[in-house]
Amino acid sequence: MSGGLERRYRRVLRLLPGYYREQWEQDMTGAFLDGWLTGDPEADEYISRVAWPGWAEVTSVAGLAARLYLGGAGAPRRYFAWGQAVRRAVLAVLLVHAVLAADIQQVSVSGKLPVEAAQRDAEEQTAAVQEQIKSLDEVLTSVLALPAVSFDRLMATPRTPAFDPGPLGVAVPAPDWSDFAPAKPAGLLRFLGRTARFKRQTAQAQGRFEAAVAEHREHESQRQHALAVARAKYHKKVTEARAQAAARNAYVASRQSAFATGEAESVAWFVRCVLRASRYPDGFPREYQVTYDRPARNVTVEFELPAQHVVPPVRSYRYVKARDVIEPVPRPEDEISQRYERLISAIALRTLHEIFSAAAPEVVRAVSFTGYVSTTDQATGKPVRPHLLAVSAERPAFEDLVLAEVEPSACLARLGAVAPAAAEPAQGDWNAAAD
Amino acid sequence: MTGQAFFVLTALADEPRHGYGIVGEVAELSGGRVRLKIGSLYGVLDRLAAEGLIEPDRDEAHDGRLRRYYRLTRDGRGALAQEAELRAATARVVRVRLGLAAEAAG
Hints:
heterodimer, A: 435 residues, 9 strands, 11% strand, disordered C terminus, B: alpha+beta
């Protein structure tokens, strides 16, 4: 019953390694179909004939495949090998994961690969690493031209796209008699006993035609039914979306008026919205605590910084023909720590910039930023959050900077940033910045 | 523990569920914010199973297919409780910071 759609989804699952499919394919297919099928046999029959797995579904499977082929948790050892299938599984996704998640390791190339393909792989992997470095370098500059977050932009516009019936909206053309009718006997043939044969052929054709008409009618009524189900779903969705947007907007409006009076919780709420709207590269933490001191008109942000491993520990990849392996070329330690320091400085400046440009000067006069990382204390094995840097800036001094041109670390030093890591207690530092 | 894993474990806290049931429950729990795609869901399930935090419960026939139900193991329940505690503690600190709670913040 779910034939076509199921077949198409299983084709997507072929991205996954065999051992994994053996264990999970049945279950994944079932869960996927559960999301599509309505339980109504006619609608389901139609859906399974015309529907396709969406892009987001396909991407999620590709992402999973990437992790598995890289020999993540639970993968048998041999799946460290880079094979043809790996390249099929969206190389870009793979490489990001490769650098973020895997330790530097020698990746063995399957013996069947031609040399040029292996070299191309090495080049592509190198390009992906360089792409990552570029995104780290641009953490500050890439946001400077973006419009600031405002209360207006926090208001939701209900998404009410016009109803799109998709393939359900297209009727299949009805059968046409002229496609069935036998050719009439012409001229003299009429007198040679062909008339009776023509009548016989006509009767047969009529039978076929009527069967086709009945089948078409059946098909049409299935389609109409599925269309009605889809339309009802759509209307329900639109109504819900409108109600949600109205409720959301009323809430934002109440926050907006409280913000204008400097009510601490609403100011902190708005600043959190500003930080949430800021897009960082994948894999960066999204944790922060915000407080507002009304008399001082000062916003305090405690911000979780990415750990140093976001700086790719590999500089490039090269193919070594003699041993038939793709080998990572490590990035020197000095360069890693330099890039990391520059990165966390850029994040601090970016956060100050985002808050100052979004919040009205009457409400926010100064911002204090403290950046910490989440890690494990090697001595005690307990989670700790050591602070890496702290900086405060007043609006006039900050707005005077030309952020597009600054060297982030130098700029922070000028703002009087300190690196309190050494002085920081190893744990219980949640409240350090409030002292 | 990732947010997704946290939601998946929470979805299994009250009763065993099958794959799509978990997707629906996670959407519900998160107020519609988290809509797991099947590939992401199984990426979480397989790890949780490998870590012994969940296990298969039973198979049930539905529309000619078998639905596999998953349940929390005892370890899973413990890990979830611990994570919830950690998140609650975090939330408490934040509330204190925001001036929403009177508790002394050290």
